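Box 3.1 — From sequence to structure: Signal transducer and activator of transcription
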Amino acid sequence: MALWIQAQQLQGDALLQMQSLYGQHFPIEVRHYLAQWLEAQPWDAIDLENQQEEFKAKRLLDGLIQELQKKAEHQMGEDGFLLKIKLGHYATQLKSSYDPCPLELVRCVKHILYTEQRLVQEASNASSPGSGPVDGTPQKYQQINQTFEELRVMTQDTENDLRKLQHSQEYFIIQYQESLRIQAQLSSLASIPPAERVQRESGLQSRKSTLEVWLTREANTLQKYRQELAEKHQRTLALLRKQQTVIIDDELIQWKRRQQLAGNGGPSEGGLDILQAWCEKLADMIWQNRQQIRRVEHLTQQLPIPGPTEELLTELNATVTDIISALVTSTFIIEKQPPQVLKTQTKFSATVRLLVGGKLNVHMNPPQVKATIISEQQAKALLKNENTRNDSSGEILNNNCVMEYHQTTGTLSAHFRTMSLKRIKRSDRRGAESVTEEKFTVLFESQFSVGGNELVFHVKGRVPFVVPDKVLWPQLCEALNMKYKSEVQSDRGLSEDNLVFLAQKAFSSSSNNPEDYCNMTISWSQFNRESLPGRNFTFWQWFDGVIELMKKHLKSHWNDGAILGFLNKQQAQDMLMSKPNGTFLLRFSDSEIGGITIAWVAENPNKAGERMVWNLMPFTTKDFSIRSLADRISDLNHLLFLYPNQPKEEVFSRYCTPPNSKAVGDGYVKPEIKQVVKVENDPMLDTEGEFDLEETMDMARQVEEFLRQPMETQWSGQQS
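Predicted structure (token representation):
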């Protein structure tokens, strides 16, 4: 009953819309007196398309009749007597109307409740836009489905009105022909004797006058019917356009955005089944209304009656064509995008799909899709409908494909499986622009005929990459975190401290306050064109190097939380100096792309009683291909605790390589390499306590080569 209470508070146009829901098919008095019962019934549980559900609908109809009769019996007094008669009459009327088709009652009540709910929600949002409930996906889907039900009822209503108009016009034409016959009879009276002529003429004139009065009145009625029907079509098309805006400009655009983010490491964009179902419903309803408008035009041509309807019909025809054109061109989409980076002579694939392909008879004459590669400038010109001629910026092999209709899924799509970029035509680069910054677009084009060649649409899929000159730092943080988690395949993303470290690196800043970076913007040049201060690489090259190192060698350690990573040398020193000797941590190198270093605290061998933080020269992918991080840490006995206080065995032992046995076969012994660091008077340590790993690895490789030689050449045939 809560909904009915709110519905009674509606005002203005919303109130009129609510009132128009009721009539002889379902009196508003029934809604009022049975509000609580009606809102408590499981109308949504009945599938209107399933005839086997009719027994459930019959049960609801019987319950409705019983409730009405019960309500009527309880009416007392003079006013109650009249209401008792009225409610009893409604019970009989509803039983007579819906007993043969109880599912229609369910359809009617569902439409009423859905529309009331929508009107109440819209009124609530308009009065307090900031206080409404959060717009969750299920609620949004329910709203879309409610609007479809409303559109279905409106379309059925105009269909009924159109049939009524057609029948009235047919009867009018019959009567008009009768008036012509009478006129012909009057004209023929001149050839008969006067006495007989007067007698017959009087009767014919009387019939003619009566008929002309009727024709005049009926012509006005027909014009009124036409005008009312045209106005109803206006309202239907307005709601269709609104619904299409929600589905195409909101839901489909959001899907495309998710698809873009998925290509950069975001979650999957999700399927298209729901979107296709909505688009197909739109196509059905738009086409039904278009056919209705065409039938009204035919009736108007068949019986011209001067008035404003002709102009209104022309407007309606243009509107419905515009709506269906927008639907067809917007639902030609790229379901599976080609790779973001294309290489010549390398095969790649893509899939395009028409979401309304199963409707409008498009699949009866499957269209062909062509793929071409064009420059970013050409793509931008296409968006502005500028003439770009037919020049392409390269050549793609196997770039034509016929769309196929898949009966089981109801999809119309073209699968380009073996496309290959044969050549690319590059423009002259200016300034500091590198070859990787020049962007191209794979453009998919096709031509569809709709409704038996009634309408033909030339469609193009793919918009150019939009790379803004600057973005807010928080936006870039979101993208970096998404990319990092996706590439490293980890649920552990970048923490706030990690992002502050990245901001310090990107902006050459020393601030530790995250708020200081919220409104800062970073340009493309800062991101991947200008080298970081004192380095020969950019911010992105450094970050991408970290990603490559992590995903190839250190993924498990990152997931375990063993790698802090995003720290500078001073931060590492401050953290370690408060910990016991032998405490160490892992941080990414500032000076080398894709490098990670071990920092640990220990005694200063050159000054008794003084402690200092040591830093190994960075390990890279090349180093970890020889010996893993876990094995290296296990080799270094002076590393005891992973910061802050975890014994290293607890963290790394499960990743260590089992020790080799001393078994010998075929005169060879398997070598073993171990990480060794000499810290006392070691020339490989610089003045800041950095150990040059490269020199020791050269030595290790020499040892390895030596150990690979046959034993007899090493030890004169001795066996170990």
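Summary of the box: Residues 129-136, 681-689, 691-720 have pLDDT under 50 and may be disordered.
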